[in-house]
Amino acid sequence: MKIGVIGAGFIGRAVAQLALAAGHDVMLSNSRGPHTMSSVLSGILGVQVGSAEDAAKFGDVVLVAIPLEHYRSVPAQWLEGKTVLDANNYYPNRDGHIPVLDRFETTTSRLLAEHLPHSHVVKVFNAIFAPDLTQDARPHGAPDRRALPVAADDATAKAQVIRLLDELGFDAVDAGGLDESWRFERAKPAYCVPLDQAGLKAALAAAERTVELPAVERVRA
Ligand SMILES: NC(=O)c1ccc[n+]([C@@H]2O[C@H](COP(=O)([O-])OP(=O)(O)OC[C@H]3O[C@@H](n4cnc5c(N)ncnc54)[C@H](OP(=O)(O)O)[C@@H]3O)[C@@H](O)[C@H]2O)c1
Predict the structure, then answer these.
(1) What is the C-alpha to C-alpha distance for residues 35 and 132, in angstroms, rounded to an integer?
(2) Angle 159-129-46 from CA coordinates, rounded to 5°
(3) Does some domain include residue 112?
(4) Ligand 1 atom at minimal distance to the Cα of residue 132
(5) Which residues line ligand 1 (CB under 6 A)?
(6) pLDDT tens track of the chain, all 221 residues?
(7) Could you list the residue range(s) of the whole structural domain that residue 127 is in?
(8) Of the chain's two ends, which shows fewer C-beta atoms within 10 Å, N or C?
């Protein structure tokens, strides 16, 4: 599969490494252009680089991993009909206040889906710290395999992403549609906590819409 990645930061690069290791073709992009990505090229063997538009055109599926405040810059016309993976989270200190999110009236992935009305948006990779993506990936069936939550309105796109997660080293838990994806947004019990499928299901069920937990403490060495 060809995977385009919009955002060459911590999450984009970690997913790119896993996808390349699984045999996929990957193009990373950022906002400043490919001439600024020589360290990415030399640091990730086999990766291609381009503009955000290049990555959107390149991908059979396209990951969006950028600061949420820039979601409206994602090139919608090149993503029509495609599965778009949404790893974005809302941090008001970084992104500025988005009142509909502050009022718990919508979800981060619904905002992106409204910007990409002809794409199939799947919320995934937002609830794991970037370094954990490469550290926690395990082969199918490993006893300590971690599960990640996935939400989407389109069942075909969701199934495609669950298969991709399995290839990349993770089990999945279906968390419902995009309007349910608040259950694993920032400050919910499932956010960036290593859990297996049973633990993740329990954490998703325990989430309360307007209750925000304190920031997760990193306990990993
Ligand atoms: N870091 C984590 O552990 C983690 C975990 C889960 C989810 N997330 C979420 O994933 C998203 C990305 O986080 P990150 O930590 O990977 O960010 P990051 O390291 O700060 O990198 C952000 C990347 O996005 C690019 N970018 C910014 N605006 C862009 C635009 N308009 N078009 C194309 N590319 C653009 C930046 O490129 P330029 O420098 O050229 O602007 C940079 O390559 C955030 O929403 C974050 O909350 C992060």
Answers:
(1) 28
(2) 70
(3) yes
(4) 3
(5) 6-12, 29-32, 52, 65-68, 70, 73, 87-89, 126, 129-130
(6) 999 999 999 999 999 999 999 999 999 999 999 999 999 999 999 999 999 999 999 999 999 999 999 999 999 999 999 999 999 999 999 999 999 999 999 999 999 999 999 999 999 999 999 999 999 999 999 999 999 999 999 999 999 999 999 999 999 999 999 999 999 999 999 999 999 999 999 999 999 999 999 986 655 54
(7) 1-204
(8) C
